[in-house]
Design the sequence.
């Protein structure tokens, strides 16, 4: 069981590394219960599955399965979430978001905070380095992923 933000991030970071090793985009996520229990984990699998909707946060959310409520859960992601994944957090009322880094991509975590989600940005150097290296090596894939 993960009890602090950095420990929870380590699960998402492991998923990001797996995604990169599979030839995909190195973004990982995990959903935790209120007591730190890991409910689901996942990685961006757009490339591996040929499915543009398989972002890390959606994969972790799907892996968690159905819950009665999500208000006391924590979504942890290695990178600030895009609009699509931020919408998932908001739609299901996930109460807390932990972001590994927002330097390489400043997603919509500010918007989530404005709408009541408790947001923590860790500015994790390893998450940022992983993304910087990926973007430098595969810019075409990165810009496809973010819709540019």
Sequence:
């Amino acid at each position: 069981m993960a009890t602090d933000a950095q420990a929870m991030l380590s699960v998402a970071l492991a998923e990001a590394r797996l995604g990169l090793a599979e030839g995909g985009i190195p973004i990982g996520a995990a959903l935790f219960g209120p007591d730190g229990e890991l409910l689901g984990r996942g990685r961006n699998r757009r490339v591996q599955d040929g499915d543009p909707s398989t972002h890390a946060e959606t994969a972790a959310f799907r892996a968690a399965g159905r819950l009665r409520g999500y208000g006391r859960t924590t979504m942890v992601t290695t990178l600030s979430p895009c609009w699509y994944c931020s919408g998932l957090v908001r739609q299901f009322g996930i109460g807390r978001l932990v972001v590994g880094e927002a330097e390489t991509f400043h997603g919509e975590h500010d918007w989530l905070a404005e709408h009541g989600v408790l947001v923590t940005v860790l500015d994790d150097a390893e998450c940022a380095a992983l993304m910087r290296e990926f973007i430098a090596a595969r810019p075409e894939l990165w810009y496809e992923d973010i819709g540019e």
Remarks:
- Strands lie at 28-32, 38-43, 74-79, 96-101, 118-121.
